[in-house]
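ugh ok so i messed up the first submission bc i forgot one of the chains. this is the corrected input, ALL of the components this time, i swear. 718 residues overall. if the numbers dont match what u have on ur side tell me asap before i send this to the collaborators (the ones from the other lab, u know who)
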Amino acid sequence: MSFRNFPMVPRVVFGRGSFNQLAEILEPVRKNGAPFIFLVDDVFKGKSSLVSRIPLQGKDKIIYISAEEEPKTIYVDGIRDDINKEFETVPSGIIGIGGGTLLDYAKAVALMLTNPGSSADYQGWDLVKEQGVYHVGIPTISGTGAEVSRTTVLTGPERKLGMNSDYTPFDQVVLDPSLLDGIPTNQWFYTGMDCYIHCIESLTGTYLNAFSQSYGEKSLDLCREVYLEKDSIDEDSQDKLMMASWHGGMSIAYSQVGVAHAMSYGLSYLLGTKHGIGNCIVFDQLEEFYPEGVKEFKQMVEKHGIDIPKGLCKDLSDEQFDTMIDVALSLVPLWENALGSDWQKTITREKLRSMYELM
Amino acid sequence: MSFRNFPMVPRVVFGRGSFNQLAEILEPVRKNGAPFIFLVDDVFKGKSSLVSRIPLQGKDKIIYISAEEEPKTIYVDGIRDDINKEFETVPSGIIGIGGGTLLDYAKAVALMLTNPGSSADYQGWDLVKEQGVYHVGIPTISGTGAEVSRTTVLTGPERKLGMNSDYTPFDQVVLDPSLLDGIPTNQWFYTGMDCYIHCIESLTGTYLNAFSQSYGEKSLDLCREVYLEKDSIDEDSQDKLMMASWHGGMSIAYSQVGVAHAMSYGLSYLLGTKHGIGNCIVFDQLEEFYPEGVKEFKQMVEKHGIDIPKGLCKDLSDEQFDTMIDVALSLVPLWENALGSDWQKTITREKLRSMYELM
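and heres the new structure output, hopefully the right one now
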């Protein structure tokens, strides 16, 4: 098809306290004897305010996962194997509760319960052939757009790349802004900036159409309200960041991210840099490509008193630079979106090396 | 549930020329021997530019329907009965091609092929119990939001009211802005104003939350671009009106329309006034309820040289006024959204009569 037939999340509930409806939402989907598996960010371990409200029944199980590292194919495969070993039946569903990392794990595990082999085999575009098990996304931090996107970004043995497919999006999303309570300031900033940055990349990209533009513009407006106009995080900020992330994710439907994401994937692959902070480190140096966006970004950095880490690359070897450059260059659609089909005229290995050296 | 678990259209394609992908979109859904039925606005009869591109196969059938009148339960039931008589199997799907009227017919017929009785039995909220047949919406004029909403508004023997249900939304929407070519100026204005007016009603309503607000605001921004900033209809206007309608429809997810729609339903029930023009006739007199919206609306009316019809009600009998007032008053959620739970303090029969007398 010339134009993508975009899969939207078919069910969404939005509301402060809507997490309490989870039992009611899951009940019609429960298959006799087949458990729901809740993948939960381990920062919530022992925090009864959230955990006690997870509606466990029968053989349902919570698996805590650390979001300290970016999601990896090897962990996805491991979680899938553990579930298969423990349960005789395919689960009724997988529910991811956390930030982008947990949401990506939930999407990937749901797909790997019905598709053979390793998740690394499916890093790319439209390689997934079978519908996954029912999967639900419940963000507890917003910005990445993982709750609405058709990808789940994984670091594999050879690359950092998403499983982009029509089967990837969640079957159900629960948007409860009260779950954003208590997020550390840095994480609030970096994750929100992921949203801001991918909107800038989408809106200035060559792939853009009116569908993606309208979502991207609204997302950007909301990011500006949250990060430029407001002086503190209140309920209204939480509501708006949640919607900024949602619309920002939708804006990728007929668009792509760009230079910041391509280079940030390199950093992340080599150094394990988390996605949000990695994007900020890269975007801070991209005035040449996104002059207005970077200027506004620097205002937000200053307003929130954030220190963007510097000097990550100062002691790297040639081989390490080459690894990052290889990962970045492999993301062809991102470069094409950012700079058009002749992107290779601008983006040479030397150019990328000189840019990475600034970070 | 306290918060509605909103059903979104699970598949959407957007793009100028995307109508040509229809065969490819329908192919995986086709059931052996079961036809697709295309409900097409009869203004396209004989217009090969559109009709020749409808991908008919086997027993597939086009049924032309006039959009001169608002959709009626009796016609929905009739189309359903005709399909059942002609075909031994339930159709593979129903495809609506046209404006809000045709989209509403497609949704209603799809539901009535699997739900017993008359469509009039299902006018209300969540009365539909069985999933309908697969249904596709392809707007050829945008504004009503019918392509994305969970209602299909019908005039029945007793009321004008939608079949609001989780089964109502389309399974697939094709947004091809080039299909908006050649719309008469008046229709372009009135249908677009339906969007503008329901955004004003949604954004000023008491039901609003951040989800609906973000969609409503974006829709309103786009309406302003199309109807205030631009001097002629170009491709960009078509793209943007299509997205305004889409986002405007989404803004109703956790909101409602208000005074204009409630009173316009009365006009439409009694006099058969078409929805878009009816909303304009009513809204023009609603400065008391929506002062800023009505002011901006009047600017758009003036800019586009539109004559809003007046004097529709001047020769009506007491009984006719009573009929309109009964229909309007029956729409409790609309009044509650507009004016809060004590709306009956403001909205009396006398008040409505005096307002209708101005129209």
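quick check: The longest strand of chain A covers residues 36-41. that seems consistent at least. The CA atoms of residues 197 and 304 of chain A lie 16 Å apart.
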